[in-house]
Amino acid sequence: MEVTNTSMKGWRQESNENSLADVHSSVHVPIGGGFFKTLRAYAGPGLMVAVGYMDPGNWATDIAGGARYGYKLLSVVLISNLFAILLQHLALKLGIATGRDLAQACRDHFSRPVSIGLWLLAEIAIAATDLAEVIGSAIALNLLFGLPLTLGILITALDVLLLLYLQNKGFQLIERIVASLIFLIVGCFGYELLVSRPDMAGVAAGLVPHADIITNPGMLYIAIGILGATVMPHNLYLHSSIVQTRDFGRNDAGRKSAIKFATIDSTVSLFLAFFINAAILVLAAATFHFSGNQQVADITDAHRLLDPILGVKLAGILFAVALLASGQNSTLTGTLAGQIVMEGFINLRVKPWIRRLITRLVAIVPALVVAILYGEHGTSELLVLSQVILSLQLSFAVVPLVSFTSNKTKMGKFVNPVWVKALSWIVAVLIIVLNTYLLWDTVSSL
After folding, report:
1. Which of 123, 124, 274, 387 has the greatest CB tally within 10 Å of its CB?
2. Position 18 in a domain
3. pLDDT exceeding 90 applies to what percent of the chain?
């Protein structure tokens, strides 16, 4: 297996450890194969990253936002998606240009105590992500098969075996499964939008930001939850690693080409994620907000009311099928992100099944406790809370990413142009300000 060595002066050590070493450079990239043939070789990582932008946590915040405020928060979904496109571009560029994933870059740059602190924060973010996957999958199993939430939560532990099996079959198989599930979700929501008949003028108006998003505390809380659910901290670590599965030339020309094609893959995939997130919010607005059901704020209520309000039989079933597909997709990518974070920050390599089991248990325990004590409503509230936790963790991944990719001594000729650097810092500062406000508002209301 080739080891990537970089000699950029901004790094303290040579990059002599491949990220996800067992699949590093494992996907062939044709030389001189033409634009579309080359793009096809790079297609995959973007869809795996896009999964994090349509996981069950997004559903909770999008449903709550659409039901309570109509189409007004649609602009937040759009802005969050544009943030995501920029930040994922920086993540893939860091991985391709330096041969380091974001966790490895942090370990090289920061002191040991700071690296451990960032690792713990990243683990909290992954636990919050996994919590959303556990609850979302359990709710989907309940809606489709009538399984109690507690049993559904326990069943989600079995995906450890599924993931181990898939990992042994090659990285591209995982990518294909993820892509298939994404297009299943797209198909389900395409149908939902057709039968809900949203007001297209209202949808268009919703894409324009409204001042009351900031001035209305309830709307702001959900808006920040949407931001946290859309721009996922673990996705920045994930993307900076999995782009290195492509066997591109480890020279300036090869890296330049890889960054171009990986960015196309990422951008197109994230627009698919935008469609799904927007579709969930639009569906909630068209079905619930304008029918006097503004109180609908969780997935279970949404599923229960879809069929009678829309007057069709398949809406609820397809809604639950899409939710289950979303949860399973997020499980695959969340596990990989956990492995990348643990190996990158503290150089601790454990067997995948042990890593997966630990992560899943951390999510299962609080989900079980809440499900037993508070039932469906409690798990739905926990789902929204998990997205706010993610939003609070986001700054600790974004600031190092923007800092590294804006540093010429670390990135060489692949450093961010001035306009990208300025835009990236504006996004980072905006994320910090919004999250600080959320924290202050939460603490002051206690």
Report:
1. 387
2. no
3. 33
